[in-house]
Amino acid sequence: MADTGKRQRVDQDGADVPAAPKISVQEAMPQYYAKLFPCQHLAKWLAYGNDSKHAQADAHFFNRREFCFTLPGDIFVRYQAFKDAAALQEAIQRRCPAKIDIGPVYSASPADRHKFGAAFQPVERELVFDIDLTDYDDVRTCGSGGHICARCWPLMAVAVKIIDQGLREEFGFQHILWVYSGRRGVHCWVCDPSARQLPDEARGAIANWFAVYKGHEEGKAKIGLVGTTKHPAVERAAGILREAWVETILPAQRLLEDGPACEALLRYLPDEGLVAAVREQWKKDSRKRNMTADVNISRWRSLEAVVKAKIGEEKKSKGAANYKALAPLERCLDEIVLAHAYPRLDMEVSKKMNHLLKAPFCVHPATGKVCVPLEPPAVDAFDPDAVPTVGSLLGELQAAAAAREAEGGDAKPPSEPWRETAMAEAVASFERCLLAGLAGANREELAQRTRVAVAVGQMGVDF
Amino acid sequence: MEAHKLRNPNKEDSELLVKLNALKAKHMKGALVPSSASASTKEEEARADLISHYVLRLAYCRTAELRKWFLAQECEMFRLKFSKYEAAEHEAFLAVHAPQYKAVDSAEFESVRDDVYKVMHSCLESKDIIQRTMAAPHFYKVAWTRVPELVSQRRVLLRRGFAYVSREALAPLVVAEFRASVSKGLSDMARRWRQMFPAEEEQRLQPLVASLANRSLVADYSGVATKYGDVSAASLQQLSARHFPLCMGHLMTQLHAEKHLRHGGRQQLGLFLKGIGLPMEEALLFWRSEFAPRTPNDQFDKQYAYNIRHNYGREGKRTDYTAHKCTTIVCFSGGPGDHHGCPYRRLDETQLRQALGRLKCEDRKIEEAVAKAREGHYQLACASAFEGIHRVPEMDVGVSAPLQYYTESRRIHAEREATAAQGAGAAAAGAGAGAAAGTGPGAAGAGAGGSGAGDAAMEAAPAGGATPGAPTPPQRGLKRGPEGAPLGSTPGAGR
Ligand SMILES: [Zn+2]
Q1: Is A27 a catalytic residue?
Q2: What is the distance between the alpha carbons of residues A306 and A256, in angstroms, rounded to a whole number?
Q3: Nearest by CB to A205, which of B148, B231, B235?
Q4: Of A452, A454, A462, which to mutate for an interface test with B (greatest number of B Cβ within 10 Å)?
Q5: Which of A128, A304, B52, B432 reaches 20 to 30 Å from A26, CA-CA?
Q6: Where are the compositionally biased (Low complexity) regions (chain B) (predicted)?
């Protein structure tokens, strides 16, 4: 991230937004934290019901959570702890961090960690995932590094769908929050009580479960497909990918137009003869090509047809029992799709309880974009260039104030000023995706504690 | 009854089984009967096996080391036997010992049959195995967190948090359960042995049992006792009050009061702290804070830090020094400003009574200890004090080293905690809270160290009491680093 810390001008080119003074993201942050940051909602989430009057609510629970502030100049202040939402809000406004990370809940308040030595340990933490488009640089043709656009978003969209569905259907999790990271990726927070309590070993196991893409080797993605039958979880992902492949990814990324991407893709075909046959077919197609069809899709269809014809031919000549020769052929189409579009997770983030991850509703210091929630069913339609920025939100605040002024200035602004901006929709989404479902889970978790406490009480043990 | 082959006709396993049988035959009359034996013989075999298991439990329950060894042997034996069990025996065993493994009935199996088949295929299982498994499917449903290895390698079918595990894949899980249950049984038995056996029984059985155990293993306390991982600078005062023998507790008290300790005392206490598993960094932290403010930081670094690192083998000859045993400590005689050596020898009777009184030793035992010290039996005096402080009838082995005193104390405490925790867990399950009772993979493995559940309880104790005070003072630990650095960095106070 070469341009981190550089002051980027907040774009103010929207014609309907009144001319706000041009200020940098960093200069805008005090106002953002004072009026736009939904701190109460964030704290509500992280308290998991322990802010309630319930007999088993642990009033110190929130205070054992680590926050890490990144102050301007990339100064990290770790082990921040706050007793409640108000204390968090106060500190955020006072220190105005460029970024806020959320860490685990520890056995004691992070502020007291020195007192406890080795007894100070992380005890619970959401299961998190981090998917970043920079990890797709070898398969995206529209840009690289910090770049993101509508053409590469389909890669993120399909990743969200695959991981979300796997977490729900395979692992049985329900309380899952997806967030746009503000720049070139997405974050996922799994908040079920059972997910928060997973030991590192189980976190590693989940990360490995989803790690079908295992990095690169000799210019090809390592996709651990063997034999001819895929594991049902991989098959499920492949089903989602095959559909997205022809509908969005292939045309958006133009992977089969002549060029290095196309050459790289053809290397996944198991033998040179097949590559030659595909090229031959494409040449034939170009003579009689229907100009309205996307060339990437028509080329893909031809490639599929050539591979399938070859499989039929092999089966006929050598018999279906010739499993060893057929397997690479039968796998290669899926391998191409998985290699180019299967979610590429940052494994380390998921494996350890004590990894930090940027909080939702942070503002990306380079882009000014707010880390807003993403709803998996609507992820295809999500436009990373249309998310609210600190500049656009401040503009909306001014517009609302101006409107009130024009009507005589009698109306009062709402106590939470963000309700008059696009932040209201982002917060509503946060409530829909996470808080609404968590309310019941929190009650159940506290009730569980009551049952245990009652049982222990009945023991009458005097230790 | 029809003869059946070992499901897993692995040569090494078979040889091992023979060896174990021989070993068992040496101790006991009963050996495993060939599996072609008649039903009544089999029953007899099972009975003999059960008796031998319990007699051996009795023999091996008495110290942590013996328990650990016994546990390993029994688990290996169990693994081999479990692999020969037949379907009905599996079901019966699981129903009793591991009800959390739910057998998947045929209707449910049909709904996952195709996917189970695909999983086996995708793992390149052999045609034979797939065919056999699918012809007579015996699958169990377990929380996925119980099978992290299978999940990690995608070798299992997952549906809504449950893993469908074949009987073959189940064996290692059941062994883990068995291990936990034997481990708990051993701890219980050790406790009961000490508490319940009448004196005459004790006299009758004690030599027999002791000789059984001594044939294989004698505990050695010259090494370290680091199995309790909660030892840190912060926990030392509390550990000292509960678990340290008087020779070490006395040094802790003097150090704290005088903010200083002379060389002999520093060595005696320092090596002991190392022995109980205090990491070097924590040791430096502890001594530095105890010596402050009398010794400023820079003076501490110059005069004392070297010696601490030296004891940990990080300086000079890089020898790994071990803690002193009683025989060494008793011989220490220092001047008036020295506090090391054996307090039962060095303190006068009034001081000794006061010191033991502070440790809440029973009055009767204080007098016993003072009397024994007067006669010059310092180690016996220490054992009396142990009994009086821990409220145990008789310390079976006597005190031979401070580390042993500490380990025994921790073990007793951990067992009491475990009993309380297990009772609580059982009651919780009864109240319909079974789902939460240890679904993590740690739950199965926790029993490994004889009193594992107790260890966990111990470690949880300081954390539970660590509810933080009200408002947090602003933390000013500023640290610079490249973008992204905090994401990877582990907390400084953790390991
Ligand atoms: Zn792009």
Answers
A1: no
A2: 15
A3: B148
A4: A452
A5: A128
A6: 454-469
Check CB contact under 8 Å for A169 and B159.
yes
Enumerate the residues of chain A whose CB falls inside 8 A of the CB of residue B157. 232
In a domain, B125, yes or no: yes
Tens digit of each residue's pLDDT, chain A (463 residues): 444 433 444 443 444 444 445 678 999 999 999 999 999 999 999 999 999 888 889 999 999 999 999 998 889 999 999 999 999 999 999 999 999 999 999 999 999 999 988 889 999 999 999 999 999 999 999 999 889 999 999 999 999 999 999 999 999 999 999 999 999 999 999 999 999 999 999 999 999 999 999 988 888 888 878 888 899 999 999 999 999 999 999 999 999 999 999 999 999 999 899 999 999 999 998 887 666 778 999 999 999 999 999 998 888 887 656 666 788 899 999 999 999 999 999 999 999 998 999 999 999 999 999 999 999 999 999 999 999 999 999 999 999 999 998 888 788 888 999 999 999 999 999 999 999 999 999 999 998 888 877 776 665 443 3
Among B156, B175, B194, residue at a domain's last position: B175
Cα A134 to ligand 1 centre (Å): 10
* Residues in chain B within 8 Å Cβ distance of A209: 151-152, 154, 158
Contact list, A172 vs chain B (CB under 8 Å): 159-162
C-alpha distance from residue A78 to each of A66, A75, A362, B241, B490 (Å): 7, 10, 17, 34, 11
Regarding whether B391 and B250 lie in a shared domain, the answer is yes
Tell me if B137 is assigned to some domain. yes
Exposure of B3 by Cβ count < 10 A (0-12 exposed, 13-18 middle, 19+ buried)? Answer: exposed
Q: How many domains does chain B have?
A: 2
Quick one: CA dihedral A347, A162, B120, A317, positive or negative? negative
Question: Using a CB-CB distance cutoff of 8 angstroms, which residues of chain B are in contact with residue A349?
Answer: 487
Say whether A118 and B424 touch across the interface (CB within 8 A). Answer: no
Domain ranges within chain A, ordered by starting residue: 9-209+347-455, 212-341
Residue A282 corresponds to which tokens in the numbers above?
A: 């494409």
Give the ipTM: 0.90
Question: Could you please report the per-residue DSSP string of B114-181?
Answer: HHHHHHHHHTT--HHHHHHHHHS--EEEEEGGG-HHHHHTT-SEEETTEEEEEHHHHHHHHHHHHHHH
Q: What is the CATH number of the domain that holds B164?
A: 1.20.930.80
Q: Which two tokens stand for residue A183?
A: 């720049």
Q: Residue A233 is nearest to which of B154, B469, B491, comparing CB atoms?
A: B154
- Shared domain check, B355 and B231: yes
Nearest CA in chain A to B233: A117
Residue B259 and residue B322 in one domain: yes
A82 to B472: CB separation less than 8 angstroms, yes or no: yes
**B433, B490, B493: residue with CB nearest A448:** B433
**B303 within domain boundaries:** yes
Is B205 part of any domain?
A: no
Task: Read off the CATH number of the domain in which B391 is found.
Answer: 1.10.579
Q: Is A313 among the catalytic positions?
A: no
Determine whether A257 is an active site residue: no
Containing domain of residue B154, as a range?
95-175
What residues pair up with A128 in beta bridges, in sequence order? A189
Joined tokens for residue A273? 């003869």
Whether residues B250 and B361 share a domain: the answer is yes
